[in-house]
Write a structure and sequence with these properties.
single chain, alpha/beta, eight-stranded mixed sheet, 22 helices, 14 strands, 39% helix, globular
């Protein structure tokens, strides 16, 4: 029996009672033959104001043209984006995490309203990829993702630099270690053109793990933004989409509990961003799958950290590309028994089949450590509980920070005051910096704390202090940091009750984050606590604060799923 390829669009194009639909489609250039061909939405997160996204519309046009050449109607449309690096350290960062769900909503809206038969997403900055993956799960129509690719590195004094270098250089300038002229030179040189931030930050964490998940073609995550390989990938994606239609292979056939384990294994092996925790909790729910914080800990316990990649390491994604690409890393992990090779992918083949003819990894640069002699024997992401985080928190510990920190709390209710304290020299060895009221509801929007962590690193305090927050961290963050503390301060969580000078213990080995006071004192403080007013009482941030779930459930905004969680 022949597979119907225009399963959805035929609702409009082959129904006599839809004359208006057909008239509108003739207006965009479809004739009597092409109107009956499958319609493929090509969703681009392209916009001019961000190097991560500035080239995506061009890639989307290549993709659409390639679809048209093989009797599929490639129909481009756009979704939104927020540049984390541009908005970092400002109130603009509050819009970053909400953009993930808005991206998913935009894609679902166009695909559903237009009755498109398949979806190709062309994504760049951090929240683009998880937003697209969530939309694919909701729609469950043949889909794949093209990652826009990484930026090339800049150069300063013969060394590779990137956008994170500018934040740390600022901290160094504040500490008197470099002057304004050198800081300005680093800023001018860090980002030479199009592409997402080049380290194993959130964009590359999500693209690499989504490739392992099976939703993008091999090499998608490591092909540079400005490369012939990336343009060829757009051509190949068209043929892959036709194959998905012929096979009727849909995202929920690909994303399973085992493929989720593959994705999380890659996050741990490569030293990926803490944001992956938020995003994969939300992605799993969009596919009707169960995933919890404890699952992340299980994967972390069983996955060695093997990649010497920024932010805590030395190398960038362009170096991964030059050494063999992401598939060569996946092949190593598969051969070591760390991946489920039988999982299906958007090629219509299993992960194992995709990797059979991949050239071996070239470790001349020394990016990868042997699985048996890793950088760290377990993953860098650790889930902590305790009287400071009864419902969980996420620590990023690569092994360079140690596994234990105890110190006195220095409490701030926003990031700006914290950065000011670093500038003034008011942060000292042994301090545990607390930044609260920056969670998903309290932020609102759970902004990232890269500005302050980079200032700490630049000031030479990276190994001397710890930082805990109910907010989150950039993928560029490193140091002794714990985020995603739940319940958040705005909800009256214990972090709201902290006072300057309180003793806090962070014990990674035993997965504990504890406030060292008596329970009765904690109860007394809770009785006296007054819930603050919302910081924003209108617009999307207010709406987000009313809808969003906790960080431990992925900061989702789907009311039906939230009800199921409760």
């Amino acid at each position: 029996m022949e597979t119907i390829l225009n399963k959805y669009s035929r609702k409009l194009t082959e129904n006599e009672d839809q004359p208006g639909s057909r008239a509108m489609l003739h207006a965009i250039g479809l004739d009597e033959r092409t109107i009956k061909l499958p319609q493929i939405g090509v969703a681009s997160a392209g916009y001019a104001g961000n190097p991560c996204n500035m080239h995506l519309n061009e890639l989307a046009e290549i993709t659409a043209s390639s679809l048209n050449s093989i009797d599929l109607n490639g129909l481009t449309f756009n979704t939104i984006g927020v540049s984390d690096a541009i908005s970092m350290g400002t109130a603009g960062m509050n819009f970053s995490l909400p953009s993930r769900d808005l991206i998913a909503d935009c894609i679902e809206t166009v695909m559903g309203g237009q009755w498109y038969d398949g979806l190709i997403t062309v994504m760049g900055c951090d929240k683009n990829m998880p937003g697209a993956a969530i939309a694919m799960g909701r729609l469950n129509r043949p889909s794949l993702m093209i990652y826009g690719g990484s930026i090339h590195s800049g150069r300063h004094k013969g060394e590779k630099i990137n956008v994170l270098s500018t934040f740390e250089a600022y901290g160094a300038k504040v500490a008197g270690m470099i002057d304004q002229a050198e800081l300005s030179e680093i800023i001018r040189s860090a980002c030479p053109g199009a592409g997402s931030c080049g380290g194993m930050y959130t964009a590359n964490t999500m693209s690499s793990s989504i490739e392992a998940l099976g939703l993008s073609l091999p090499f998608s995550s490591s092909n540079p933004a400005i490369s012939k390989e990336k343009r060829q990938e757009c051509v190949d994606a068209a043929q892959a989409m036709k194959n998905l239609l012929l096979l009727d292979l849909k995202p929920r056939d690909i994303v399973t509990n085992k493929s989720l384990e593959n994705a999380l294994t890659v996050v741990m092996a490569l030293g990926g961003s803490t944001n992956a925790v938020l995003h994969y909790l939300a992605i799993a729910k969009a596919y009707g799958l169960d995933l919890s914080l404890d699952d992340f800990q299980y994967i972390s316990d069983h996955t060695p950290l093997i990649a010497d990649l920024k932010p805590s390491g030395k190398y960038l994604m362009e170096d991964v590309h030059d050494s063999g690409g992401t598939p060569a890393i996946l092949k190593i992990l598969l051969e070591e028994g760390l991946l489920h090779g039988e999982c299906m992918t958007v090629t219509g083949k299993s992960l194992r089949e995709n990797l059979e003819n991949i050239a071996p990894w070239n470790n001349e640069l020394g990016i990868l450590y042997p699985v048996k002699k890793p950088i760290k024997s377990s993953g860098h992401l650790q889930i902590l509980y305790g009287n400071l985080a009864p419902q969980g928190s996420v620590a990023k510990i690569t092994g360079k920070e140690g596994d234990f920190f105890t110190g006195k709390a220095k409490v701030f209710d926003n990031e700006d005051d914290t950065v000011a304290a670093v500038k003034k020299g008011d942060i000292y060895k042994g301090d545990i910096i607390v930044i609260r009221y920056v969670g998903p509801k309290g932020g609102p929007g759970m902004p990232e704390m890269l500005k302050v962590t980079a200032a700490i690193m630049g000031a030479g305090l990276g190994k001397e202090v710890a930082l805990i927050t109910d907010g989150r961290f950039s993928g560029g963050t490193h140091g002794f940091v714990v985020g995603h503390i739940v319940p958040e301060a705005f909800e009256g969580g214990p972090i709201a009750l902290l006072q300057n000078g309180d003793n806090i213990t962070i014990d990674i080995t035993n997965h504990l984050i504890m406030l060292d006071i008596e329970d009765e004192e904690l109860k007394r403080r809770k009785t006296n606590w007054i819930k603050p007013d919302v910081k924003v009482d209108y617009g999307i941030l207010y709406k987000y604060s009313q809808l969003v779930s906790s960080a431990s459930s992925g900061c989702i905004t789907d009311a039906r799923i939230q009800q199921a969680i409760k």
